[in-house]
Amino acid sequence: MRWITYRTVDGAEGVGIATDGGYRGLSVADLGTDLLALVAGGREAQERAAARLASAPLMASGSITFLPVLPRPPKIICIGLNYVSHSRESGFQPPTYPAIFARYATSLVAHGAPILRPDVSEQLDFEGELAVVVGRGGRHITEADALDHVAGYAPFNDGSIRDYQLKSAQWTIGKTFNGTGGFGPELVTPDELPPGCRGLWLETRLNGEVVQRASTDDLIFPVARLIVLLSEAMTLEPGDVIATGTPAGVGAARKPPLWMKPGDVCEVSIDGIGTLSNPIAAEGGA
Questions:
Q1: What is the pLDDT of residues 65-82, one digit of tens each?
Q2: Helix, strand, or coil here: 103?
Q3: Region of residue 77 (phi > 0: left; psi between -120 and 50: alpha; otherwise: beta)
């Protein structure tokens, strides 16, 4: 199944499912649930909703705008330096324990919506990533059970404000500016993908030029291992998002640096999952 969250022209939030002809959807009020509740409800709740949506109207192109797959996830947990190539281009040795930082829901933007370059900085960088959405929560999850806790996967762009990232001993401030985290367009359930999304190619393009390309096999800490390590410290909840890290090629590591600027378009594609596309705009609209 491939789920979306969307907004209609009159401002209502809805839940849709992909079909051969496009998306079929109902408003949250009509369906009686949002996607976060469906994620928490597990496969049975999703199958009931999918059966209802099978007879829902096919939504005309242009009649909806995408919202972030989950507009208000409980937690957004980001993993840094999770590809050997990116660790080395950033001046770090590959970690023996993942670098972990937070994002907040106010930073999220949907497929098709602009990623915002803030007025206070020009150092807006791209980071194409695989995002994992937790379905069944828990603590002290074992590696054997970890993938059973996954509701689905989506492309993510961990847009980073590099000078602010380095202003602090922690990276969070440069990683959670409003409107910098692209997330979507679809939440793809695990049955449509290899276990843990192993062996998929991730590619980031800026204005059509490939700037990052790597296999998810290159993750230092794969999906199951991340779930184990995170659940040692915190209770994972349904709807939590884990952004699994970016490969080499980021703009900050280039000479000269390559920053995203208003008028650019950044795309993140992952085999079998889809393409997240965002134009770049100035925060103040200039």
A1: 999 999 999 999 999 989
A2: strand
A3: beta
Q: How far apart are CA 182 and CA 159, in angstroms?
A: 7
Burial of 198 (0-12, 13-18, 19+ CB in 10 A): middle
CA distance to 10, 75, 141, 227, per residue, from 234 (Å)? 39, 11, 10, 10
Please list the ranges in the chain whose pLDDT falls under 70: 285-286
Of the candidates 152, 177, 179, 158, the residue with the CA atom closest to the CA atom of residue 69 = 152
Give residue-wise pLDDT tens across range 155-195.
Answer: 999 999 999 999 988 899 999 999 999 999 999 999 999 99
Q: Among candidates 241, 81, 50, 228, which has minimal Cα distance to 165?
A: 81
Name the 3-class secondary structure at 147. helix
Task: Select from 3.40.228.10, 3.90.850.10, 3.40.50.300, 3.30.1330.30 the CATH code of 76-282.
Answer: 3.90.850.10
Q: What residue segments make up the domains of the chain, in order of their start?
A: 2-66, 76-282
